[in-house]
Amino acid sequence: MPLFEGYVIVETDLDYVEYKSYANAYIKPLDGVLRLLEQDVIGSESILPHERTFIEKFTSSSRVIEPSYGIIQEDKVKIIEGPLAGREREIIRIDRHKRLAEICVNMFGEVHRLKLSCEILPSSNKNHSAIVV
Q1: In whole angstroms, what is the distance from residue 90 CA to residue 36 CA?
Q2: Which residues contact 51 (CB under 8 A, 6 or more apart)?
Q3: CA-based max dimension of the chain
Q4: In terms of DSSP H, where are the helices of 1-133?
Q5: Over its length of 133 residues, how does the chain's per-residue pLDDT go in tens digits?
Q6: Using the 8-state DSSP alphabet, how is residue 121 labeled?
Q7: Residue 119 contacts by C-beta under 8 Å, 6 or more apart in sequence?
Q8: Among 108, 2, 112, which Cα is nearest to 46's?
Q9: Among residues 75, 115, 108, 120, which one has the least CA distance to residue 91?
């Protein structure tokens, strides 16, 4: 499931001019690619600093979003592990059957509703490492 529907995020060591040349030659001609994100200043990144920070905080070093695990504590969700830990207030909805939590973020000039892996564990089992997912 893509994190941002309709977007592909590329991390590269190419400088802006090299990447722009590569993207115009090989990415833009692909079917379904409508446009590439760009900033006004030549040489700047296509994503804003707060967008980069969000992606870095929510992903592992391999840019994968690991699952979050939580418990119900006094009728409230408490995330005990994963990228949603400490961000319980940002959770809009939890689907316990599909093991998903939904949050809203402002990225690329739009509000995106993201579905992230989140399993609510039985309250009596606070040692979730023993549970095989």
Answers
A1: 29
A2: 107, 108
A3: 56
A4: 16-22, 49-58
A5: 667 887 778 788 888 788 888 888 988 888 877 667 766 556 566 788 888 898 888 888 888 899 999 998 888 899 999 999 999 999 999 999 999 999 999 988 889 999 999 999 987 655 544 333 3
A6: P
A7: 67, 68, 69, 70, 99, 133
A8: 108
A9: 115
